[in-house]
Specification:
The structure is a single chain. The protein is of the alpha/beta class. Helices cover 33% and strands 27% of the residues. The strands form three sheets. The chain has a six-stranded mixed sheet, sandwiched between helices. A four-stranded antiparallel sheet has the order 2-1-4-5, covered by helices on one side. The protein has a four-stranded antiparallel sheet with strand order 12-13-11-14. The termini are far apart.
Length: 309
C-alpha cells in the first residue's frame, strides 16, 4: 500500500505545484486524473523519489520513500511522460541496457530476461528493429517493458496513451490491466477514457490540490437524474452560466449538457445517462466556483480591514 501524507511542493517564485495532498493507494490500478498543469507529473516524480517535497512524506510498505528513496527504487518501475530512448539501439539491446542499469540479476540470461520483457509488451517480432523505426504505440509498450525490468511491486505510468491511435490505446489498456493484477499501478492521465476503461478508483487533481477521490460508479451516481442535454443558440449560452457540465458542437449546432441537481430542466432539454467525462467536468466546475467564492471572500475581508484601519 502506498500512502501520501500532506505532500506539498513549492518552487521558487513562489509557485505552489502541490498543496497538502493526502491519499492512500491500494494494490491494483489507481487513476490520477486532471488537466495539464494540475501537478500530476510533479506528484509522480516525488512518489518515485526523484524530487524532494517541500513538506509531507510518502511511505510504501513501511519504507519512508521521501527519506530513503534508494530503498524503494529496486521495487519501482516508472514510465515518465517524456521517456528518452536510444534511437539507434534495437528493442532487445535497449532492454538489456536497462536491466544492467537496474542491476537485475537472475538465473536466466540477460538475453532471456529481455526477451520476456519484449513478450510482455507484444514486441517479440520487433526485437531486432531499431527503436527509431517503432511506431508511437510500440514505443509506449517498450516504455512499459523497461519499467517492468526487475518485476517491480510499484509501477508508475505518466500519460501513457497520449497521442496513440485507438487500436494502440486498446492494446496498452489490456497490458496495463494485466499488470495491475499483482502490484500497485498508478496511472496519471488527463484523458477521462483512460480512467473509465482501467481504474476502479481514482483521484482528481486541480491546480495542485486533490479535489476528489472516488470510483466511476460513485462519480456517476452524483449525476443520476441531474444531467440534461439539448441545443441552444450561441446568444442563449450566457443564460446557462454555472449550469453547463459540457458544451460541444454537433453538425454545427451548440449542444449543452446541464447539471441541474433539482431536476428542473429548461424546455427542449431531456435527461441523459451521464458519461464519466460529465462527472469529471462537474467536479472541476464545482472546484472552480469554490475557488472563486473563496477569493471573493478574501478580497472582501481585506477591503473591510483596510476601511476599518
Amino acid at each position: 500500500m502506498l500512502h501520501l501524507e500532506g505532500l506539498t511542493k513549492v518552487y521558487p517564485g513562489p509557485v505552489c505545484a502541490l498543496s497538502d495532498v493526502t491519499l492512500t493507494i491500494p494494490r491494483g490500478m489507481f487513476g490520477l486524473l486532471g488537466p495539464n498543469g494540475a501537478g500530476k507529473s510533479t506528484l509522480m516524480k516525488i512518489l518515485a523519489g526523484l524530487l524532494e517535497p517541500t513538506a509531507g512524506r510518502v511511505t510504501f510498505d513501511g519504507i519512508d520513500v521521501t527519506a530513503h528513496p534508494e530503498q524503494v527504487w529496486p521495487r519501482l518501475g516508472y514510465l515518465p511522460q517524456a521517456f528518452g530512448f536510444y534511437p539507434n539501439l534495437t528493442g532487445e539491446a535497449l532492454l538489456r541496457h536497462v536491466l544492467r542499469l537496474k542491476g537485475v540479476h537472475a538465473q536466466a540470461s540477460e538475453k532471456h530476461l529481455a526477451a520476456a520483457l519484449l513478450a510482455r509488451g507484444n514486441l517479440t517480432a520487433a526485437a531486432k528493429r531499431k527503436v527509431k523505426t517503432y511506431s508511437g504505440g510500440m514505443r509506449q509498450r517498450l516504455g512499459i517493458a523497461q519499467a517492468l525490468a526487475g518485476d517491480p511491486d510499484l509501477l508508475f505510468v505518466d500519460e501513457p496513451t497520449a497521442g496513440l491511435d485507438p487500436e494502440e490505446r486498446l492494446r496498452l489498456y489490456r497490458l496495463l490491466a494485466d499488470l495491475a493484477a499483482d502490484r500497485v499501478v498508478l496511472l496519471s492521465t488527463h484523458l477521462v477514457d483512460d480512467v473509465a476503461m482501467l481504474c476502479p478508483r481514482f483521484a482528481v487533481m486541480r491546480q495542485g490540490r486533490l479535489i476528489a477521490e472516488t470510483t466511476p460508479t460513485d462519480a456517476l451516481a452524483r449525476l443520476d437524474g441531474a444531467l440534461f442535454e439539448g441545443t441552444a443558440r450561441p446568444d442563449a449560452l450566457p443564460r446557462y452560466t454555472g449550469q453547463i457540465a459540457s458544451a460541444y458542437l454537433v453538425a454545427g449546432e451548440h449542444r449543452l449538457r446541464l447539471h441541474l441537481p433539482d431536476g428542473s430542466a429548461p424546455e427542449g432539454f431531456r435527461p441523459v445517462t451521464p458519461p464519466l467525462e460529465a462527472a469529471y467536468l462537474v467536479l472541476m466546475n464545482e472546484a472552480a466556483r469554490a475557488d472563486t467564492l473563496s477569493r471573493e471572500a478574501t478580497s472582501r475581508e481585506a477591503t473591510s480591514r483596510e476601511a476599518t484601519a
